[in-house]
Amino acid sequence: MTRFEDWLFEPEPGVFGELARIPFSILSLPYFLAVKARTAAFRKNWLKTHQLDLPVISIGNLTLGGTGKTPTAVWLAQKLSEKGLKPGLSIRGYHSRAEKNPVLLTGKADQDLNPGLIGDEAAMIAQKLKSIPVLIGKNRIQAGEKAKELGVQVLILDDGFQHLKLKRNLDIVLIDGSKTLSREKIFPRGRLREPLAGLRRANLIIISRAQEQMKDLAAEIKLIHPAAPVFKMRYRVIGADQFAGRKAFAFAGIAEPEQFFDLAQSLKIHLAGKKSFSDHHYYQEGELRELEREAKEKGAEILLTTEKDLTRLKNFQTRIPLQALTIEPDFFGEEERILGIVIKLLAEWKNAQGA
């Protein structure tokens, strides 16, 4: 069954499909005008931007859904920590209680990583960044002030490009390399959170899910923002050899489940079946039993899902082994160049503070 969001965001559904989506196209106009007005208000200082007493790096995108923001934010936090810096990571915690009642995670073994409390993405991040403070909550200014109290030297915002209330020293924007940028439409008809011109605020652009050659998309980006350096990113699966040749029933409740299914197949996993759920979907016992039934009928050895989904499934016991693909970003050998840009910026900020 097609997910509603996949039906709605289809960029070219044909004449009759477009007619069926007219109500959403109409709603896109007031949304577009509101976004333009808000952006202009911040640009003209009618709405105030708060500056923290530490540098801020935003990892964001122009569209709803997954472009690789969280894996990139985790990677950057880990690399800065390896360089001897003390990063902190701020995440909103969508669909969790911590969104309005902030939670600080500091890697203590007894801390509650319940995704219902802190959100599925925050739970996944906390498992990876055990020695790095993770601040969960909608108020990013409050998170930044708390991070400063903890001795954090640089704050990374996961999904912060549209959070204009907080001044950033560096805006990194990810663009999905599997999509055609010019075909994207404004929400709610499409996935765009803001017009493509918003890309001009970016200091560094990363094409995610990239192939070796991305000349057309790179050219589109350069037309919008000629000055920004553009890098490419793809996913690397850790321990991929253990999955090769296995027969799996795959399922995912993420923004782009087909990307996950394609990744699984690229590892020579035989997909006996697959099923998609909405992003951040919280599974019920009956749904897991139905997945098990389908997997068994199709002869699957394992149930295969994403790391983010697995955080929402930790309280379930399955009769068929449940495993997840553990991914990390691969920047086509350009990791040190990206880090060099970030570290240079941090050094400039430090020097400016001492001046």
Number of helices: 12
* CATH homolog superfamily of the largest domain: P-loop containing nucleotide triphosphate hydrolases
Backbone structural class: alpha/beta
What oligomeric state is this?
single chain
Please give the CATH architecture of the largest domain. Answer: 3-Layer(aba) Sandwich
- Overall helicity: 25-40%
Rounded average pLDDT: 93
Kindly give the count of domains. 2
**C-alpha end-to-end distance:** 61 Å
| Model regions low in confidence, pLDDT < 50 over at least 5 residues | none
Strand content of the residues, in percent? 15-25%
Give the CATH class of the largest domain: Alpha Beta
Tell how many strands the DSSP assignment holds. 13
Give your account of this protein's structure.
The protein has 355 residues and is of the alpha/beta class. The protein folds into two domains: 202 residues, Rossmann fold, CATH 3.40.50; 95 residues, Rossmann fold (3-Layer(aba) Sandwich). 36% of the residues lie in helices and 19% in strands. The protein is built from twelve helices and 13 strands. An eight-stranded mixed beta sheet has the order 3-4-2-5-1-6-7-8, sandwiched between helices. The protein has a five-stranded mixed beta sheet with strand order 9-13-12-10-11, with helices on both faces.
